[in-house]
Amino acid sequence: MTTTRTARASRGLKAAALAGTLIAAGAGTAYAYWSSAGIGSGSAAAGTMQAITVDALVARDSPQATLVPGGTAAVVLHLTNPNPYAVQVYSISPNGPATADTAHPGCTTTGVTFTGTSAPLSPAMFVAANSSTLLTLPGSAAMDTTSLAACQGATFHLPVTAEVRK
Predict the structure, then answer these.
(1) Which range (32-36, 99-103, 158-162) has the least confidence?
(2) Whole-angstrom Cα distance, residue 64 to residue 138?
(3) How many other CB atoms sit within 10 Å of the CB of residue 94?
(4) 3 state SS of 25
(5) Nearest C-alpha neighbor of 156 from the set 118, 116, 103, 115
(6) Is 12 a residue whose pLDDT tops 70?
């Protein structure tokens, strides 16, 4: 009888040892999982915003007012956004002197100036992705009294810079 008890006790010890080994193995696996580390690298490329084009009075647009000596008039800009996302028009500023069209070569002193907008433009103005819109700037063109008579009927080129932001 003693022999049977010893065999049973021996089996119990083996089972306890096996369970202890499995628990230790599981703890080792959990430790390895929580303390693992990896090394590598990633990359991303920044896109480039395409230039917004600014035109004035294209064939389908019409002027808001006529410019006369001593007066002001609205400037109408046609903005085209070729980007796949909308952009905000932040400001419009002058970018050189006004010149008369080629049909008025005697208009050498135009007396015409352009007043830019404040930044940021208020109210905010957006140009949708891959589209065009008109922006009217009331009273932003002025003609002083030094304009030559040869400027009557001329169309003036007003170079501007449009600052836009995503």
Answers:
(1) 32-36
(2) 8
(3) 15
(4) helix
(5) 103
(6) no
Residue 139 has, within 13 A of its CA and on its CB side, a CA count of: 1
Which parts of the chain fold into alpha helices (H)? 2-34
What's the confidence (pLDDT) of residue 104? Answer: 95
User: Cis bond leading into 123, ω under 30°?
Assistant: yes
Element (H, E) at 131: strand 131-143
Work out whether strand 131-143 and strand 71-81 pair parallel, antiparallel, or are unpaired.
Answer: antiparallel
Strand, helix or coil at 71?
Answer: strand
Residues in the chain: 166
Closest CA to 72 of 132, 103, 113, 101: 113
DSSP 52: P
This prediction has a pTM of 0.66
How far apart CA 34 and CA 24 sit, in angstroms, is 15
